[in-house]
Design a protein that fits this description.
The chain has 2 domains: about 180 residues, 4-Layer Sandwich (Metallo-beta-lactamase, Chain A), CATH 3.60.15.10; about 55 residues, Orthogonal Bundle (Arc Repressor Mutant, subunit A), CATH 1.10.10. Helix 4 packs across helix 6. Strand 6 and strand 7 form a beta hairpin. It has about 260 residues and is an alpha/beta fold. The strands form 3 sheets. Strands 1-2-3-4-5 form a 5-stranded mixed β-sheet. A 5-stranded mixed β-sheet has the order 6-7-8-9-10, with no helix packed on it. A two-stranded antiparallel ribbon has the order 11-12. The chain starts with a strand and ends with a strand. The chain is built from 6 helices and 12 strands. About 35% of the residues lie in helices and about 25% in strands.
Length: about 260
Amino acid sequence: MTAVQRVVAPNPGPYTGPGTNTWIVDAGPVAVVIDPGPDDDEHLAAIDKRLGSTAVGVVLVTHSHPDHLPLAERLARRHHAAVRRYPELSDGDIVRVGNLNVTSLYTPGHSADHLSFWLAGDRAVFTGDLVLGRGSSMVTYPEGDVADYLRSLERLAAMEPRILFPGHWDPVTDAMAKLEEYRTHRLEREAQVLAEVARRKGTAAELTRRVYGPDLGEELLAAAEMTLRAHLKKLVDDGAVNVHTVNGEEVFERSV
């Protein structure tokens, strides 16, 4: 089993849980760093401390959100390493570093530029924000896409991984069950959105309140509405929902 260490960035919050996971993967004489996280001096020092005398062979980034990408260039410069991410890396590209081969998997859905990283010998996937260690992941409309998200989950499931190293929270040792949990949750949410639109038409903001309930905090409301809008886009694309404009606002209703 390849040795993997975690350094948690000091950016806890409603969207990041305890903080962003930076993964340090043993590649023999060097290390691979995945998702360096926010540009934070304390976090950079913690990564360097964990690395010790080990050089960084490459810095990999799952996606460009501000809790995953910003420290990448700074860390790479310190270690004279390259940063590699989408679109330089595409689906199936193999990054060879030290004694390790890391396969890039294009897994859009959470964001349009999302990659996961596969260690075939360990059947391990670094999932970024496609799959988290706890709770569910948002679909960041308009760049995120629910149809892509479901296909990405199915793609990972077809590879039968043993363990997932997510962008937030703890590693997932029951990988197949977690992937099915995420797929089921997203399909159940889609059915819930469709049922609510069928019950009564509404704007995205109105439907968000109705689907997620009145107890949703303001901090999470924006994330909930983005995800709901992504579901609505899929339902419109599928022909299950119609959208029209009333007084400058999009109103969604069930297709007849």
